[in-house]
Amino acid sequence: MEAAGAGVALIRAQYLISKEQFHAYLKAERKSRNQENNQDDGEEDSSSNDQTEPPAKQMKLDGGDQVRKQGSQEEVVKEEEKKPQERKRARGQNKSRPCMKPNHYEKDRLCQSVIQECAEKCYFGSQCRFLHDVGEYMAVKLSDLGDSCVLFNTFGKCIYGVTCRFARAHLGEDYKNIINEDLVKQWEGKPLVRNSLSKELQQRLRKKKVCFDKSSEYLSHLGKPSSTGNAGNKAAGNSTGEKEMTNCTASKGNAEGVDVLPPGEEAPECLVVSEKGEAPESMVLQSSCLADASKDSTLKTIGPVTDEDVIKLRLCEKKRLDIQGKLYLAPLTTCGNLPFRRICKRFGADVTCGEMAVCTNLLQGQSSEWALLKRHYTEDLFGVQLEGAFPDTMTRCAELLNQTIEIDFVDINVGCPIDLVYKKGGGCALMNRSNKFEQIVRGMNLVLDVPLTVKIRTGVQEKVNLAHKVIPNIRKWGASMVTLHGRSREQRYTKVADWEYIAECAKLASPMPLFGNGDILSYEDANRAMQTGVSGIMIARGALIKPWIFTEVKEQRHWDISSNERFDILKDFTNYGLEHWGSDTQGVEKTRKFMLEWLSFLCSWLIGVLTSENQ
């Protein structure tokens, strides 16, 4: 191997080849391929021309002049190719639309201590990363959106102060917040929104220091799925029936071997330990529970006490859900927020329910998930909907809500068709997981003092109905009501709801109330639905398209609502949104976001007017 010069790689002699030899090799390969493919002589002649360059390079050289001549034409073609791509990107949800994102306004946020006019009490002191100079903040603040602040006009005080996007309506000299004392006194002591998450409870949830006594007692009798299989689960579910668990609800109190924490000290997390894989026999279970109850009965008490702490309410003693024939606003994800529910309540909705909340997120103390449970004081009959796939999380979450918030009922979501929920075993998947479904219903019904309802679909597959098999079991497990959406998971929200099948299921559910849901867009649809024998109707997309449908059903008429009235509805929603999410930049953007989500449904009412003879 000879030494190479600078910049030349060392190559073995057997790999060296001249340019002529390389092109001769390519020529021979081309001829052999042409003969095999029986190509025309003209193609063979064209392939043998100019053998001094490789074919790939020759093609580039031959096309170079044409490319240079037609450069301007290619630019035009490229621009035309870009146009359809831009149109494709704009289809569906336009995530790149101009909007105010949190990272845009969090750079120059004002400290809360300054907003509340107590800057000297800033917890972080000199290390605070927010602005403390009001003048500096006002220099970079976005311009106000109007001269009237709904919070100041309604409650006499805007808690957002200088950060309000309508601040000039209530700012005085030196940016001081003006307060209307008369209005403040009128609202003093009146909670507008309930079921908020306190900081103390959030910290206890995050540190896992919340004790679930009733849930732990129930779950301790369930078999372990990993060791017992389906048979063990079924036995465990049966062993925790109404008769067996009725006497097993005595509180542990201060019996022998049980430590009592001093007042003010937080209780540790309750650990659920199952010593045996199989569920205990019913007689052993009853005897052990009776023994615990006898120990508790010997406790010494100070002063009069009720038996509420010792004896669990029986199913017949629970508060009943009396909503026969009432109009039920369905729990709507994203659009079924508190301002929208206030709109529907004003138009005649009798029963409202919060958006679907994931039980695991609630147990972790996530503020965004707890916000879905908030209840306005105008919602006189209100419930929350929970989603989960396992009896431990669902039972603990039900017990937590039973102790911390004010609700009239709890609904289990067994109708969610979303893949993210379905693949984890929640939503519609529970209809195929009867053992877990039973354990969830029995456990939640045991720990709740309010009625338990279930919302299901016809089934998972389009032509395989399951609801008629599940509904009798739901009644037997202790649920107070079931709501049936007349579509399967595969149908999602397409095709027509099967109200004939809903009528069959209503007969099977008796005496348990069954509400029907699907394709109720006018009062005629509501009348036809009630003739099927259901106890009531749940309205979902019909309320999104026209929230005044509740008035139409109650007054039995079509309401040809004017454009001014529809615009007033949007203004009311805006005011409700500013009250709920705030009148600062973040609250304004949230209100705009949810109003645009709702408008995607509301505008379709105009299409219905143009295509329907009656509407």
Automatic annotation (TrEMBL):
Name the UniProt key words of this record, in alphabetical order.
Flavoprotein, FMN, Metal-binding, mRNA processing, NAD, NADP, Oxidoreductase, Repeat, tRNA processing, Zinc, Zinc-finger
Q: Which GO terms describe its molecular function?
A: flavin adenine dinucleotide binding; mRNA dihydrouridine synthase activity; RNA binding; tRNA-dihydrouridine47 synthase activity; zinc ion binding
Q: Name one GO biological process term.
A: mRNA processing
Q: Which Pfam families match?
A: Dus (PF01207), zf-CCCH_DUS3L (PF25585)
Q: Ranges of Basic residues compositional bias?
A: 85-94
Needed cofactors: FMN
Q: List, for all copies, the residue spans of the domain called C3H1-type.
A: 105-135
Q: Where is this region: Disordered?
A: 28-102, 222-259
- Bias kind Acidic residues: ranges: 38-47
User: Biased-composition ranges for Polar residues?
Assistant: 225-252
What reaction gets catalysed by this protein? a 5,6-dihydrouridine in mRNA + NAD(+) = a uridine in mRNA + NADH + H(+); a 5,6-dihydrouridine in mRNA + NADP(+) = a uridine in mRNA + NADPH + H(+); 5,6-dihydrouridine(47) in tRNA + NADP(+) = uridine(47) in tRNA + NADPH + H(+); 5,6-dihydrouridine(47) in tRNA + NAD(+) = uridine(47) in tRNA + NADH + H(+)
- Tell me which EC number(s) this protein carries: 1.3.1.-
Q: Provide ranges: composition bias, Basic and acidic residues.
A: 59-84
Q: InterPro entries from the entry?
A: Aldolase_TIM, DUS-like_FMN-bd, tRNA_hU_synthase_CS, Znf_CCCH
| ZnF segments: C3H1-type | 105-135
| Listed PROSITE patterns | UPF0034, ZF_C3H1
**Does Coiled coil count among this protein's keywords?**
no
Q: Which family does it belong to?
A: Belongs to the dus family. Dus3 subfamily.
Role this protein plays: Catalyzes the synthesis of dihydrouridine, a modified base, in various RNAs, such as tRNAs, mRNAs and some long non-coding RNAs (lncRNAs). Mainly modifies the uridine in position 47 (U47) in the D-loop of most cytoplasmic tRNAs. Also able to mediate the formation of dihydrouridine in some mRNAs, thereby regulating their translation.
Name of the molecule in the record: tRNA-dihydrouridine(47) synthase [NAD(P)(+)]
